Structures are given as C-alpha cells and as structure tokens.
Description:
Two copies of one chain form a homodimer.
Chain A: H1 2-20, H2 31-44, E1 58-61, H3 75-87, H4 100-105, H5 108-113, H6 115-127, E2 130-131, H7 132-145, H8 161-172, E3 176-184, H9 185-189, H10 192-196, E4 203-215, E5 218-229, H11 235-244, E6 250-253, H12 259-266, E7 273-280, E8 287-288, H13 299-307, E9 310-313, H14 314-317
Parallel strand pairs in A: 1-3, 1-6, 3-4, 6-7, 7-9
Antiparallel strand pairs in A: 2-5, 4-5, 7-8
Helix pairs in contact in A: 3-6, 11-12
Amino acid sequence: MTQRFLFILFCSLAIATSASADPLPSWNDGPTKEAVVSFVEKVTKKGSPDFVPENQRIATFDNDGNLWAEQPVYFQLIYALDQVKKMAPQHPEWKTQEPFASVLKGDTKKVMASGKEGLMKILAATHANMTAEEFQSNVSDWLKTARHPKTNRPFNEMIYQPMLELLDYLRANGFKTFIVSGGGVDFMRVFAEQAYGIPPDQVVGSSLKAKYEVRDGKPVIIKLPEINLVDDKEGKPVGIHQYIGQRPIFASGNSDGDYQMLEWTTAGEGPRFGLILHHTDAKREWAYDRDSHIGQLNKGLDDAGKRGWTVIDMQKDWNMVFPHEKP
Amino acid sequence: MTQRFLFILFCSLAIATSASADPLPSWNDGPTKEAVVSFVEKVTKKGSPDFVPENQRIATFDNDGNLWAEQPVYFQLIYALDQVKKMAPQHPEWKTQEPFASVLKGDTKKVMASGKEGLMKILAATHANMTAEEFQSNVSDWLKTARHPKTNRPFNEMIYQPMLELLDYLRANGFKTFIVSGGGVDFMRVFAEQAYGIPPDQVVGSSLKAKYEVRDGKPVIIKLPEINLVDDKEGKPVGIHQYIGQRPIFASGNSDGDYQMLEWTTAGEGPRFGLILHHTDAKREWAYDRDSHIGQLNKGLDDAGKRGWTVIDMQKDWNMVFPHEKP
Lengths: 327, 327
C-alpha cells in the first residue's frame, strides 16, 4: 500500500510540475508575456465566448528581424553578395560591370546606391536561371560555412530563442504556424524546418516566376529572372490570401513592412492578436526603429496603442536573445 | 475473475477487429488496391530501405474528375454560368453582348465556341472585381442550392467515396494531403475542408491576381481580372514548387492535365507513386478518356505502363463511387 501511495504521489507531482512548467522561459514576467499567454488561453478554452476552433488558429510570423536577426543587412543580401564573389571567376566581365564591380571591390555602399535596378541584376545573377534544386543546394552549402560579420556565428544560429518558444507554445495549443516574410521563399525554405519547425509549405515569401521543363529526360523547375510576388507591406495580406487562404488570428512582425499584415489580421472578427518586436537591445542584439536603414519601425510604433497591438521591448521583455546564450 | 476475463477478451477482440479493419472498403481487392497499400506500407516501415520520413510524405490530388466528378462540364463553369444569370438584372447590356447573351439563352455550345476570350469575360464578371469574402460567400450560397443536372445532388456530394478513404488512409499514415488542381483555388477552398478534410492552405489551384486595400477603414482583398497562375499541365509542378515547396512522393490525377504532376513526382529519387483514375463506368458515373471534351486522358494511358503509374479502372476497382450509394 505504501508503494502504491508513493507512486500516486509521484504521478501527482509529475503532473503538477508539468502543468506549472513555463512554456516561455526566455520571456520575463510582465504585461507582454501576460498578454500573449492570456490570448492563447482564452482562444483555446472550450465554452469560452472567445474560443476559436483549431482549424482557424492561424499564426503568421515575419522572418527578418522577427525570427532571426537582420543587421547589419538582410542575410539574404549577404548570401547574394557572397554568391557574386563565388561566381566571379566565370564572369570576367563583372570586373567592369556595375553593380558587380562594386560587389567584388567590397564597396557595399555603392552596391546599395545602384538601387532597385542594380539589386535586380544581382538577384537575377544569384537567384535565377538555375534549377530550384541548384539554388537550394547553393543556399544549403552557404549556410554551412558563412558566418555573421559581427558574431561570427552561422546565420541560422542568429535566431531568437524567445520566438522559438513562442512558436512551440502556439503549436502545442493547436495553432498552425506560418512564416510570411519579404524574404525569398526558396531561400527560407532551406532552413525554416530545421531552425523553426516550420515545414516548406508553411513558408510564404517573395518569389520569382518559375517554369517546368524536361531537360535531357530529366524534369526540372527553372527559376526565372522575373518577380512573381513581393511579399512585403500590401503584398503580405495578398500572400496570406493566396498561400494560406484564410485570415490569421495572430500575427507577429517587427517593421512597417508588417503593418498591413497586422492590420489585416486584427481587423477580423473575434479575438485577434498583433505583436510587434521592438529592437531596443544594443548590447545583446541591436537597437533601431524609426530611422533604421533596415527594418524601419515608425508607423507601427505610432499606431500600436490605438490598434491594440502588443509591443515587445526586447531589452526588457526577453531574458535571453539567441540560443547560444544558454548557459 | 470471470468479469475480468471477459473484459480482456473483449479488448483483444476490439483490437483484432480494428487491426484487420479495411481502410479502403470501397476498393475491390486486386492489383490496384494492393499497389496502393504496399506502397504506403513500405514507406512507413521504419528500418525499411524504402522508409520515408513523415515530413517528406507529401501527396497531391487533382480535384476535377479525381476527387469529385467533372461531367457534363466542370462544376466551376456551371457556377460561373449560374452567376451570370443571377447578375443579369444588374447588366441589361448583356442581352446583346456575347458571350453573355448566349449564356442567358442557355446556348452552352455557343458559349464554349466563344473560346478563351469569351471565357475570360465570364471569369472576369463572376470571379473578379469583388472582395475575396464576397466571392467566398457567393460560392457558399451556390453550393447550398445548386444541383447537378444529371443526379440532382448538391455538387459537393458528387465526390468519390474511394478517394475520401484514400485521403484518410494516407493521413493516418503520416502523409500531408494537398489538392493541386486546374480549378480555381478560391473556389475549391470554400468546400475542400468539409468535403475532403483538406484545409485551405493545402489547396493549390489556378488563381487571379489580388490586391490589398483599405476601403472606408475596412481592409479588403480584391480579386483582379488578371490571371496569376494556371495550375494545369506544366503549371502543376510550378504550383507545387511555389506553394508546397517540395516534391510529392505520391500524386493522383485523371487527365493529361495531370501528366506533368505525375512525371515530376515519380521522377524523384526513392519510392514514388503515380495514380491515374480512368473513368470507365458509364453506369454509375461516366466513361470517357482519349476523345473527351473534358478531362481528356490520352498520353497518360499510353505512358502509364512504361512509367510505372497505377491506373484505377473505376468500374472494376471501385465497389462504390459516390457516398450516397451507401446503403
């Protein structure tokens, strides 16, 4: 009988521990964490007026500056510049052709000054006129060796630990989690499943047109040097409509490029949640907002209050930023 | 003790029954059913050289003539023609304007003769220049009242019972099931979840371009009268690449519009399955293939053997076609 009693006691303890385990340990206690948790609790509580059936629990996350860092420039741009350097021996003409000449000289400022036209040339050279499998394998190789210029870490380790916990927490509560990002969809799909647990079909992003053909008996998908979707600003609700096909109830972003996604999400009926990550941590990450050359957050900060969006203060709300800070 | 013995006996019986329960009862025993089952068994058997991890178990299904019927014409065309009739009072000019005049006179032959240009006009009038929500609500209303011209059944009951079982069987074995159809994605998403258990984000189809705007303070998605993707023939592998982001290991179709999807799927490395539904049942459904005005199956029949694709003979392989045949 004593044994049985001990066993029951042990089970009860295990259940109690598991129930009280914090699903968001990297989030400090406070109104931000509380807002997230109370939203999830109310939409999952059967019988509650705010209950949302599982098939409508759609959560969308921006990627750059929201799931992983975006400073000093978008990592995908670093990839493109690295590829230009790698491909240069096969393109001697690039030594005198802009914007390639500036890329090869390492003059990033002049590259950026080449504007949309210059960037389209770099995009076409590094992202198109190849099969989807070739592109995927190039990105995969790059991720294995490339290092972040400031931290010297692989780029897919520059992801936010609190966001990983939030993704897990939502999924454990019946949410389907999606990326909806201005970044390239084929680029993100290479690492999204391993980094975030988000499978390729739940990644929405900017894309190029593509065509299918059979080359020497082998079918291939060719990436074309022509924009298909710019999944940014007004393009985000369009991307959500076309790829996901229903309005999210939870949207998370960090810049004014996410404004329309949050607007579209939170304008729906019933309980909705808009979340903005404010980069306020110059020590552990970066501090930037209204005047940043990347990830500008201006209108979102002005309107968050009146729209009822929750703003994460990175410095205050997160006790850990990157997984490698774990002791 | 007798009670306990009976309880154990009952449990064992229940387990035995459940283990031997046929997951595909509407499929007759024979090589077709056997091919499907042995494929699923080998890719799900841990340690087998043909084992495929769950996150790669992607199965794609055409819709028209594959999950639901497509005779006498695509149901979405019937929807479009019904909408023209419903909208006619607001468009007195249609009485003399083709192809609308022929639609209103019920002269389907002349409507079809108006070709691509005529059909684009009907598509623009009935599928565009409205919000996505308006379109969705129109389709939903139509499905409630419209009836199939031959069977007098609601269109979303003209679905194939054996395919519902196959979808369930695949999902029970860790597959993620997708629709990849030439039909309109916004049209199919209205009924796909209820009819097939396939959520909106797992429906890939033809689409129009869309834009996002805020109208009188209310954000909306507007469907534009401009083609975004034709998800048919060469467009299917492109749709798969853009929306699903990885190559399926199982593809199911019924017409030459699915040829490239099966080609792309089965050209991948490792175990692959291509399935073609051959409409051979003039009594319970329809019999058509090489010369059909709709769902033409010609090249697929010629090449199935050499490509190792399994062909379903509807008459022979299915003991039930529609769910309403259930006793």
